[in-house]
Design a protein that fits this description.
768 residues; Jelly Rolls; TIM Barrel; 5 domains; nine-stranded parallel sheet; 17% helix; binds beta-D-galactopyranose
Length: 768
């Protein structure tokens, strides 16, 4: 039911049974376009009408349900003039039975109201993100037998499988079969004959485990009287937490992760399946994390399905931000919690359930109630409750804490005992974020510092016993209310920008993963540095060593320093000597003396051109020994350390693994700048609705280095079956810009980029 809706501003109840005029749209849909910064946030809050006129051939002896995966923020639903239900809250799915109202020809009309009324979560206070009104997830009509399955919850671990089924139907004896299959065929089948409407299956038949490395999935299909009525995917895995950490299937896993907001440029939350999936892929493969927190609400099922497939762990939580409302508000929060837990119960990727409103104050009665509700549905997963207060009351299994103590040159995290005197398992659920907002086009010192802060907090979390993980704020920049953000309605807190392009801080994560990775966190240009010096170069890598060359000359091999970030799986390799063996090779001094001279020059550079008395003495001796004049000594500094005004400074960093050269990165001087145009999805597929493809234009030099300060304007043209999401003319930010194109029908199209100073580029995208 995603295609062929009419969308119109406002709502008139008298018109619910007449075709309205308006724009023809498909869902996912947003009530507005939000541009990349500097907009009026109230545009996301409106009262609008969505209508779908459709025909349906009803079968006899069946029941019908209309299901909405997500409508922000309140939906009043009418079918053929009759009110069939109202749903409050924008983050969970809801459905209404329409068996008696559904006709051959139908008019389905929705009043959608996205005003931020304070009567339900997440509203009532200020929130640091936008909620974007609209029917932003899919809509469907479900045809079912006279037995409507209202719950089908499946969980399994090493020892047992457990399935709970609730049937809304008449009381009679049924033959109920549960079939467990995978690609290889049926692995288990369980049978019962029962007249109960609540049925439970248990089995100790062993299944293959769902793990981070091999996320094995099964399908459970429910048959009633021989007819398949519902099926779901699930995985067999156990989750345990204790004071020492987090255990998946009995094995300790350190939860290294990022928070994610589900928002995108222009369309806010309204992105279809493939974009949701791509975020999960970016987290798993590009950023190398083990866990994502779906801050601050349950994410799309497509995101979770992909996490299931990828072996990416998820901490999900009920909607809300800092504010707790009155009793009616709390009742909505309880409904959200119940619905999200039932809806997402079968995802093996979800390993922690957040039962507190993010960063809200203590409210014992409320949080006892959310805990009890959660435990009445699910005893297989631990609960958490994200807070920023120390020594707060705990009703959850894990004390989950946002630790913003790090300011750049102090400890990365607080001591657990200073945060809680209880013996609870302990997880850090946010860090950095607003402590150091960083734009992709900020100067390099800030971008490096942003990355080092993420390294430092992660390192200290690995170091401290009893910290089960650390989840950074956050994956990507996001639109926000004006009270937050950098004056442009954007929180530049991401390790990626809003288009999902990596900042240096993203490399702090990517370098902790297992795929070979090397990024040099510097452009190696003195002109972008205070005092024109590069004291050290940080190489974010999981390789063993880095070979450094200047021009064609190999000047040194660098490994990890023993004392810095040593608790990380892969500490960055910090190179604090860009002189290397050059003085030895090119000057007339003995090897030993050349090193002495180099150390004096480096020390002078590090101390802002001040030389210690001892160094002065040694240098004096060298000048006498080698009959070196003062200008000659200064010349050594300029040539090997200063580098200012040098003709050619091209640095090559080669990452070594087991002695083999694995990755080469070059930095320095090259003026052959060109645009590069790429898409992550050259082939899209129309399934239940339109599809999208992310297109990235990046300015690079011939060394392959991004032109970080390029803000060239590009004009985008699409043809064939493609439509551009967003503005046609955009400026690059931080040398890069991503945008999305969509296809509503199969076909072929091209995305073409023109700009004032570069060749025109095209990329073809096919839609199946
Ligand atoms: C936290 C909050 C997040 C985000 C973050 C910015 O306090 O939970 O939603 O606002 O700060 O650092």
């Amino acid at each position: 039911m995603n295609v062929g809706w009419t969308f119109a501003e406002g709502f008139d109840e008298r018109g619910v049974n007449q075709p309205i005029t308006g724009e023809t749209i498909s869902v996912p849909h947003s009530v507005m376009e939000v541009k990349n910064g500097y907009f009026d946030e109230t545009i996301t809050q409106r009262v609008v009408t969505y209508q779908k006129v459709f025909s349906y051939d009803k079968a006899k002896n069946h029941r019908y349900v209309i299901r909405f995966e997500g409508v922000m923020a309140r939906a009043t639903v009418y079918l053929n003039g009759q009110w069939i239900g109202t749903h409050i809250g924008g983050y969970v799915a809801f459905e209404f039975e329409v068996t008696d109202v559904l006709e051959k020809d139908n008019i389905l009309t929705l009043k959608v109201d996205s005003l931020e009324t304070g009567d339900h979560p997440p509203f009532g206070g200020q929130i640091d993100y936008l909620t974007y009104g609209g029917v932003y997830r899919e809509v469907m009509i479900l045809e079912m037998s006279m037995d409507r399955i209202t719950r089908f919850l499946v969980d399994a671990d090493q020892k047992r499988l457990n399935a709970r089924i609730e049937i809304d139907g008449e009381t009679r004896t049924r033959k109920v079969d549960l079939l467990i299959t995978d690609q290889e065929g049926t692995q288990m089948s369980l049978h019962q004959e029962s007249d109960a409407l609540s049925i439970r299956f248990e089995s100790d038949h062993p299944l293959l485990l769902w793990t981070i490395e091999r996320p094995k999935l099964y399908t459970a299909t429910l048959h009633i009287d021989g007819e398949a009525v519902m099926s779901t995917r699930f995985g067999a895995r156990s989750v345990k937490v204790d004071q020492n950490g987090f255990y998946l299937n009995g094995q300790k896993v350190f939860l290294r992760g990022l928070n994610r907001h589900q928002s995108y440029p222009y369309v806010g939350y309204a992105m279809p399946k493939s974009a949701q999936e791509e975020d999960a892929e970016l987290l798993k493969h590009t950023l190398g994390v083990t866990v994502v927190r779906s801050s601050h609400y349950p994410p799309s099922k497509h995101f979770l399905n992909r996490c299931d497939e990828l072996g990416l762990l998820v901490f999900t939580e009920l909607p809300g931000w800092q504010h707790i409302g009155d009793d009616a508000w709390k009742a909505h929060a309880m409904n959200d919690l119940r619905d999200m837990m039932i809806e997402h119960y079968n995802h093996p990727s979800i390993v922690i359930i957040g039962t507190r409103i993010n960063e809200s104050p203590d409210d014992d009665a409320f949080y006892e109630a959310t805990r009890d509700l959660a435990k009445s549905i699910d005893t297989t997963r631990p609960t958490g409750g994200v807070r920023y207060i120390q020594k707060s009351h705990v009703f959850e299994d894990i004390y989950t804490f946002n630790d913003f103590v790090h300011t750049g040159d102090n400890e990365g995290i607080r001591k657990k005992k200073d945060v809680t005197s209880t013996k609870h398992p302990y997880l850090i659920t946010e860090h950095n974020g607003h402590m150091f907002p960083t734009k992709s086009f900020d100067n390099e010192e800030r971008r490096i510092s942003h990355a080092m802060r993420h390294f430092k907090v992660m390192n200290d979390a690995y170091k401290q016993d009893g910290v089960m993980g650390v989840i950074g704020w956050c994956m990507n920049d996001y639109h926000t209310h004006k009270a937050f953000g950098s004056n442009n309605h954007i929180c530049h807190h991401g390790v990626m920008d809003i288009g999902r392009n990596m900042k240096y801080a993203a490399s702090a994560y990517a370098s902790q993963g297992e795929s070979p990775y090397l990024d040099v966190l510097s452009m190696m240009h003195l002109g972008d540095r205070a005092s024109g010096v590069i004291k050290e170069v940080v190489v974010a890598t999981n390789l063993d060593a880095v070979e450094l060359m200047i021009g064609d000359e190999m000047i040194g091999i660098h490994t990890r320093k023993k004392d810095r970030y040593k608790d990380l799986p892969y500490a960055p390799i910090v190179i604090d000597d860009l002189v290397g063996n050059q003085i030895e090779t090119h000057e007339r001094f003995s090897k030993k003396d050349a090193r002495k001279i180099k150390n004096i020059l480096l020390e002078t550079m590090r101390n802002n051109l001040k030389m210690s008395v001892f160094s002065k003495l040694v240098l004096g001796l060298m000048m006498v020994k080698y009959k070196m004049s003062y200008p000659e000594a200064v010349g050594l500094y300029t040539r090997y350390v200063g580098g200012w005004g040098a003709e050619n400074r091209t640095f090559t960093f080669v990452g070594l693994k087991d002695g083999k050269r694995v990755i080469k990165v070059q930095k320095g001087f090259d003026d052959q700048y060109a645009l590069e145009l790429k898409t992550t999805r050259p082939v899209m597929t129309i399934t239940d609705t339109y599809d999208v493809s992310r297109v990235t234009v990046e300015m690079k030099n011939a060394l392959g280095e991004r032109a970080f300060y390029a803000n060239d304007v590009i004009t985008i043209n699409v043809d064939g079956n493609l439509r551009l999401i967003g503005d046609q003319s955009i400026a690059m930010q931080g040398g890069v810009q991503s945008f999305w194109v969509r296809a509503d029908e199969p076909g072929q199209g091209n995305v073409t980029i023109t700009s004032a100073h570069h060749a025109t580029l095209s990329v073809a995208i096919q839609t199946l």
